Amino acid sequence: MAAASISEAARRRRQIERTLYLAPSIAFLLIFIVLPYLAVFRMSFNTFSPMRLFVESFTFDNYVGVLSDPYYYSLIFRTLLLGTTVTLATLVLGLPLALKIAASGRRMKSLLMALVLSPLLINLVVRTYAWLVVLGDKGLINEFLLGTDLAASPIRLTGSFFSVWLGLTHITLPLMVLSLVGVLEKLDRRVFEAATSLGAGEWFILRRVTLPLVMPGIGAGALLVFCFTVSAFITPALLGGSRVGTVSTVIFEKFTYSMNWPVGSALVFVLLIINMGVIWLHGRIFGEHA
Amino acid sequence: MITARGGLELKDVHLRYGDAHALRGISLRVDPGEFVALLGPSGCGKTTLLRSVAGFAHPQSGHIYIGSKDVVSVPPRERNIGLVFQSYALFPHLTALENVCFGLETRGVNVAAARSRANAALELVGLTGFHGRRPIQLSGGQQQRVALARAIVIEPDILLLDEPLAALDRQLRVQMQTELKSLQRKLGVTTVFVTHDQEEALAMADRIVVMRDGRIEQVAPPMQLFAEPSNAWVGEFVGAGNILSGEIVVDDLGPTIMVAPNWRIRLPNGAKPDAGKALFVRAEKIGLRAPLDGECTLRVLAHRFLGVHIEVHLDFSGGTLRALLPPEKAALYPPNSHVAAVIDPGDCRLLTR
Predict the structure, then answer these.
(1) ipTM > 0.90?
(2) Of B112, B130, B111, residue with least CA distance to B122
(3) Domains of chain B, with CATH numbers?
């Protein structure tokens, strides 16, 4: 009886200790993630007032406004299109690279990995400005075209969907490659030898063995790249300018220039729901295999 | 069923990885339908040899014939080889049946025919009713059977097995040895089996190839290998053999080997007394008794209980010995007691060191 209650007390104490270990991270998440989100969530139900910034209220007008305005439709559509095309591009570019890395010897592997990771060592803003240097009216490409008389006047390359897509593909490619390499590295090489000994050629192995086995990596990479892309701000802001807005750049515009915090807040939740929807979709497709 | 289509022959195969010689001139003939085991310690080159035949290791020189065709420059996927790995290497995303069908698919066999052949192969390895399961839903033994079915369904010219039973527990391993052997007999497929487990090699193979350091030390049927090792190393490696060395001294009755100052063992009849040779005697041939005055005594170091026998470890001024005794005999000589060893020259062989 006494022994039982002692062990009960010991167990409870251990449980409290365990919770205490988690306390700092829980507190951090609560203060810096949950509370700001709650504040923004509350804001999304207020009413915008040009004179007083906003008026405390409880209305769905901001959501209704966002979801019934063709301007926001095209904004959301463009953001989703950007996320999808960037994800596909990183997959098409990243898969051959990841296969090469996984099949390389130790030295070649570290060299290629360093190359893939090197962009991550440079600040995002600097990397984006580098694209302006390449694509700008007086950038490398236009200088070349003008210098060789291939074009009479500079071709406008920045401020377009293409330039945003290009910049984001470049920035997110390492995320895709890392996800794919992580899965490929863990595969048993003997499985590929078994396939070869059974008479399978390279394409047959790619289609029937490699791709099915690397699916979890494709899923994880696609999730990372898509969520990164649709919430990216600096790259679309610098390379897209005001003409190629995404949900993120418009949120920034609402909070800073037009000072319409309630609509900006509603957009924050539209973006959050898009990302959560993609995570849900990922779980539905890849949950079983993972 | 499969009929033996041809044997395997290797001629002076050399393979180096940088400075490391993995194979140093391997020549070997495997007859059609024969079951050969490659036996040796890890790093002896047995797996490299197997991978060279499969086409995944690339010898710098030499010839490998499957049937009458030199396959050295033939890519692995065109060699028509059935390969079974220790890790099974099943396709984890495919069912047992799909795994077995894989090699038929690559050969362009139509789906219906492939399925019926795959089902027949699964039945042959004693695995019916599991064709819809994925590898993860199968036990180690079942996975092994799928791997085997996958390798034989393509009717390979040569079946190569790389320690296929090493990951199984002992009871299942012994059962699989018997099944694998009878399956190989039934199919008549030329088979090369890599193992470091001599018991497995002795139990299954028609002939055993003992390898060390990239070379073949001896090729012999199991019984002959056990009884007549070609040199001292093979004698020690295969089964519990003792090697005794010492100066050869000829007395009135003939040549003896002086294994300790006060212990001479008469050489077996007809043995040529050469320097650089050592006496080989199997552990179960050594008898123990109480020592007489002035006789060389051995100290019992330890007993190792092996089930039917006890292995008694002994040491003396000339080295160490292992004797295999029935438990009731071994009990007479507990650790730290002193004994004398009885060795009949008829049980000894003189071997090159």
Answers:
(1) no
(2) B130
(3) 8-236 (3.40.50.300), 254-352 (2.40.50.140)
